[in-house]
Amino acid sequence: MIKLLTPLKLGFFMRLDRPAIELPRLIEVRSSVIEEINLSLKRLNLKGSCILVADEITIKILGEKIMEVVKEEFDVEALLISEATIEEAKRFHQIYSEKNTNFVLAVGGGRVIDVAKYSSYLSNIPFISIPTVASHDGISSPRASLLGIDKKHSLLAHSPFGVIADIDVISNAPKRFTISGCADIICNKTAVLDWELSNRITGEHISHYSVALSNMTAETMIKSADIIATNTKEAAYTVMKGLITSSMSMCIAGSSRPASGAEHMISHVLEDVLEKPALHGEQCGIASIVTMYLHGGDWLRIRKALQTIGAPITLKEIGIDEDVFVDAIVNANSVRPDRFTILSSGITKKAAIAALSETGLLN
Ligand SMILES: [Zn+2]
């Protein structure tokens, strides 16, 4: 006999008090998009004066070119970030108020976008995300990762009003960035498993739309691994679209949950303890092989995809000592104890070493 769920039982899965979903209003991913950036800004109905946020490198790569085009239609001035800290974001917020800035153009990688994202959120003005690399999925997500006095914080902010990604620029960035971005998306496979596990164990709310989008994006990367390995414009386009779609899954969830599980926590520990950490996606990717193994899932498929795109799959390749990585696995849960993952009930050192050995990370 089929038993229908009563409204009460459905209520367990529904979250009627959830915050509104914020998505970018315009997304442009193509060649030569910068030449027509004013058209994009007008489509977004943006008016008045803007500040272009960049750093010393990205102002040269793309910022100056954008300034040339934008100044034909808008009042624009450039502001360079020196560090990706909460203090820097507050300083920028102050400057926007003094100058009556109407909107912000963020030109760069993670650091620039995070400062622009949080400072524009504090000022309650829109920001446009203009990535110069396809290295991680914070490009269009609603969260900013900034350094506080003690450690890195993931802060709630607004999603970008628009995302403008010039494939000519992104495909010219070092190959390592695009590979790292792709690895960051492949990790969605384990992040989603952690979320589903938490839903079963703790009753945490889960958005099945967000899970489906996150999973689909990771699957697309795994199936496109051969294309991504070519380091062509097509590779840059594929990864950039994946990063934006992965960000969408976070916008729908209202948190980083669909794209950040135990593998990200391991990477956060590594960032804290290593003087020179590897790239975010590289660390999360390799950690994802281990957490997939711990989930009892198809870790060989994750490892094969990472290997095909050219991401590191051994500790030797990523330049991290075994002891450091083992400690990162054991201590991962302390990064975010409120987020239930496969590591939440703890793991022994012996089991962590065995997982590294079984998955070939010690080769
Ligand atoms: Zn990530």
Tags for this entry?
363 residues; binds zinc ion; two-stranded antiparallel sheet; Rossmann fold; Dehydroquinate synthase-like, alpha domain
Describe this structure in words.
The structure is a single chain. The protein has helices at 7-13, 37-43, 58-70, 86-99, 110-123, 167-172, 175-186, 188-201, 208-223, 225-228, 233-253, 262-273, 280-295, 299-309, 315-318, 322-331, 349-358, and strands spanning 26-30, 49-54, 75-80, 103-108, 127-131, 143-147, 152-156, 162-166. With 363 residues, it is α/β, with parallel strands linked by helices. It folds into two domains: 26-172, Rossmann fold (3-Layer(aba) Sandwich), CATH 3.40.50.1970; 175-358, Up-down Bundle (Dehydroquinate synthase-like, alpha domain). Mean pLDDT is 93; it is low at 1-12. Zinc ion binds next to α13.
What is this structure's SSE topology?
Layout lengths: L6 H7 L12 E5 L6 H7 L5 E6 L3 H13 L4 E6 L5 H14 L3 E6 L1 H14 L3 E5 L11 E5 L4 E5 L5 E5 H6 L2 H12 L1 H14 L6 H16 L1 H4 L4 H21 L8 H12 L6 H16 L3 H11 L5 H4 L3 H10 L17 H10 L5
Parallel strand pairs: 1-8, 2-3, 2-4, 4-5, 5-8
Antiparallel strand pairs: 6-7
Helix pairs in contact: 4-5, 7-9, 7-11, 7-13, 7-14, 8-13, 9-11, 12-13, 12-16, 13-14, 16-17
The chain binds zinc ion.
Zinc ion binds next to helix 13.
Short characterization:
With 363 residues, the chain is an alpha/beta fold.
Tell me the series of helices and strands, N- to C-terminal. HEHEHEHEHEEEEHHHHHHHHHHHH
Structural class: alpha/beta
Radius of gyration: 21 Å
Text of the CATH class of the largest domain? Mainly Alpha
Largest sheet: 6 strands, parallel
In DSSP terms, counting alpha (H) and pi (I) runs of 4 or more, how many helices? 17
